[in-house]
């Protein structure tokens, strides 16, 4: 790739990771990703905002080969996909000062072994002048580490948001050209790493909106030159609003749980409820996380393995507990051969979910007509709860 202008005196230096399919050995990347650094040239000084993942250091350095001087290197977030090339950049530009938040200082020194003499800590709201441009720093903690911050250039009405509003997309586009595609990728990104901090993110949204920006330049994915839609999306995601939806992750070993799940899906659909069902043997866990952003109810379906839930269900319950979605209701269904404590064990895995349990149903062997009747009752209980919350229009 080559450096391209997004605003007068501001270039994006995007390094595109087309082939990457997993992040942090955990997060699926079906569309790859990109790591965006930004070069800001003022009349008196030049700054580079963030860097790239160490794997793509050559792509970054090639785009900087004609840049003789950088005075400030801004680290908005210390995770290696943004800070991974800072050490090399400080060697290449010995006059540069590394700028970061107070909490980032220790992380950068310990993770990257940066000399403390090269670091300048900036406070929330502090500014650095580049001449005809200004870098104003805005602390945005827990988006998604405690040390994260954004950088605002008032002269260009441009906000460098780092992971805030990011989307894992490998693309040659500088600006958003397909809002629907970016919306889904950004929602996946929010669901996978931001959702546990939505209460803090709501406050950070209010904080950055005090700056009159026309451009949001994130560190993953394309730049927003019409940022209204992504701001509205995040306002919705962090709000307490829920949808008339059920997320139903399940797995089946010999077919009993699958038959129960499929009957329940149909029963819920007859009640007018949208169901997002995920067979955990083949599911993209990111898709499941996306569905958890809005849904009112989580229903888990599991067979029994050695008295407890299937390991895939165990993992999913732990993940949901970690992500802390704004669910209000839950239920557990499943099957067993000779004995089970699956319900008790799953319940113990989700202490962070402040949910009302609408029902549990664990059946021995193949489901019977009585089992299906109980599943119909569960669907009716879910529908009533959703109606009481005015999630269903009657």
Automatic annotation (TrEMBL):
Question: Which GO MF terms does the UniProt record name?
Answer: electron transfer activity; FMN binding; metal ion binding; oxidoreductase activity
Organismal lineage? Bacteria, Pseudomonadati, Deferribacterota, Deferribacteres, Deferribacterales
Checking Gene3D superfamilies in the record gives: 3.40.50.360, Ribonuclease Z/Hydroxyacylglutathione hydrolase-like
Q: Which organism is it from?
A: Flexistipes sinusarabici
Q: Known CDD domains for this protein?
A: flavodiiron_proteins_MBL-fold
Describe the family membership recorded for this protein in Swiss-Prot or TrEMBL.
Answer: In the N-terminal section; belongs to the zinc metallo-hydrolase group 3 family.
**Annotated ranges, domain Flavodoxin-like:** 246-383
Q: What is this protein called?
A: FprA family A-type flavoprotein
